[in-house]
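Late entry, written up from scratch paper. The run itself happened at the end of the previous shift, but nothing got recorded in the book at the time, so transcribing now.
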Amino acid sequence: MTDVHPCAHPECTEPGEYPAPRDPRNIYDRQFYCLKHIKEFNSRWNGLNGFSSQEIFSMQHGGATWNRPTWKMGLGTKSFVGATAAFGATEDPYGFFEELHHKPAEAKPETSNLPPDVRDACAELGVTPPLNSAKVRKVYHKLAKEHHPDRNKDPESADKIKRINDAYRVLKQYLKDEAAQA
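Output as recorded:
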């Protein structure tokens, strides 16, 4: 059970649910405010209040990381290795790491083994196995943008966007069902 603090504002009797630092030099020493008074506190809070220009300068050059290590970003760096170590457990919605981490196709069906509606949906969107949510979503967004009736004045675009939406819905459900069975 969490402790209930009274609001730190002197004239307030509401419970203090929102923590705020008492002093910019010790941000871990907290006081608590109600919603009304935390908004007031935040509007006037200056985290650099009381610091000399030399102290601010030293925070900008080395002290701002609180002496925690930092690493360069990019391929082959320590941050890249750490970020990609958990690749299988995280989503890659924009497909940034697809080329770097090809999953073996043993868990994904071949085209001939797909249900007919899924095969038709793949053909409509122009995707091939192995299927994943990021790949299907990326193709769907591209096609939906290209064939949307508001952008495309072709009289057939309304029918095309319906087929694209139906195909995307089928593939999304198929991937969801496959994930639930895994």
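The chain has a mean pLDDT of 79.
(Scratch paper discarded after transcription.)
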